[in-house]
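Please predict the structure of the following assembly.
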Amino acid sequence: MGKDFEGALEGLESGPAPSDAGAEATRGAEADPSSHPSVAALREVFGGAILHHEVQAGDEHVVFVAPDRCKEILRWLRDAPDHRYDLLLDVTAVDFGGGRPLQLVYQLRSIPHKRNLRVKVELPLDALEADSVVDVWPAANWLERETYDMFGIRFRGHPDLRRILMPENYAEGYPLRKDFPLRGRFSRAEQTRRALMLDMESDYAPHELAVAKRVAEREAAASNTQAGGA
Amino acid sequence: MATKTVEYLVRRNPEMGLDGRPVPAPIFPAGVEPELEGEHMLINIGPQHPATHGVLRLVVELDGETVVRCTPHIGYLHSGFEKLGEYRGWNQIVPLTDRMDYLAPLIYNCAYAMAVEKLMGIEVTERCKVVRVILMELDRIFGHLLWLGTTAMDIGATTVFLYAFQERERIYKLHENYTGARITTSATRIGGMMADLPVGWTEQLQDFINTLPRTLDEIETLLTNNQIWISRLQNVGAIGPEEAVAYGLTGPNLRASGVPYDVRKDRPYYDYETYDFDVPVGEHGDCYDRYLVRMEEMRQSLRILQQALDRLPDGPINVDDPRVILPPKTDAMSDMESMIHHFKLVMEGIKAPVGESWFSVEASKGELGMYVVSDGGSKPVRWRVRGPSFVNISALPKLVEGHLLTDVITINASLDIVLGEIDR
């Protein structure tokens, strides 16, 4: 009993422990490609870049693709007339802990063809980079920012890759990683000290600071003219 | 820098002289004013501002009164729910879900339970299905009424706010009579509900169904053909169907743009295909169409509620599955096996098989996706909420571009956001 009670407090300092079952595998069994029309077509067009295909929870098709061709594949999925995944529902990531690669997850929906598809990319912990799909779906903008904020995956070509939920000067790392402790990495005292040291400029985006700078320059110039005129 | 000279300003209101008689308005030269055309300024709205519906902060770059660029800043309510979920058992996550969308909490409770049940391969009972449909449709009305009241208030119609909140109060009472809480309902459990409906609840709901249309009619009389309402809403914040889909809008915001995408029709869950209801669709995608779509959705939800009440079957509300459902309390107190069963379920928690599942429901604000990943244990590896408000609000900069500052408030209100779920 006492041990179970302590168990509820674990992870405050170290990050969540793997649950008691602790399955090692992060992939399911290979599924029959003909069971989903888009997967069959993907295999035909992209061949070796489609690494794995599995079915989860009965009817959810998951495709693992090669990281370097991911954007190309996603763009094809959006544009191919027989597939047309026009709605990007979600971009997120899954960390299984134990040094295993992070999974970057794209949840797609085709409104015209009434189909769902989940595309996954496995990124090793030392190469957390992916191509941004903001120019394919504008909806990816904030979703990628959140994934970057929470997992530290950098999206190449993102127009405004800043933290979104955490403050811009947050220095404790990426909260949804498994090695991140529940209460954060810094002590309470250090967190308070940093909060008090906050600079007002960190509440603004770079382009906003640029506008503020122009306004300040204009006002300085105006007061100079007035002083000169008087 | 260009300057222009304003020669004279006439003071409009005559001032009172010392003897009490009005003094003729003086005319005086006003001096030099700088020419500000083409010069931008920043306005900071929020985070504590009544028209941002929570702690949303908008920094607006203005040219005169026209918005050049708007940047929402979020995260002021960030509570790390998804991280907390990784430390909790499957049933212990339910209370976190209703704290996200506290304006329609039961939809979030149900969506989470459905995702886990799908992962575990549990089919809930017929009665539970119908009860969940009732609760979700009730909370759709609950969310839309709040949207209606606050939006009307943002635009200046205080009466509508009072009418809408009077009706919401009745839903609060229904929540309270069933779950014991007005907002933080936490009504679902994996495999069923926390309890069956109490005696007299369906009659109370029937009374609500009978009388809500009258209030809706009254509100529509006040608003739909109101000249101020029309001129503040029509052609404001319009977005076309292709763009709306590309920006990830879902729910009433997407349907107002003319895309008939509703998860209840597209991928029916809980026998939604057997209910007779229509999906209202707009054609202009502006704030006015979003208003019309939501008003009609409330009436359609009432239709579904009536059908669900009529077909509400008898029978157990929880599945007969000892893996997830606690034994009856009387058994646990008198029978050794039941007590051990109860103890194990509470202390070890229920276990979900290895795998993952994604479940989408049509929430009041759009498509709500719950994504759970399990490694076979009693806690999730990952619990992800695809909140509709989060994606909807990310389209705000696009929607307000080129509009006036006052329209920012209107457009933001018309998107129907809830910050608890945006920040999570």
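The first helix of chain B runs from residue 81 to 85. Chain B touches chain A through 61 residues (CB under 8 Å).
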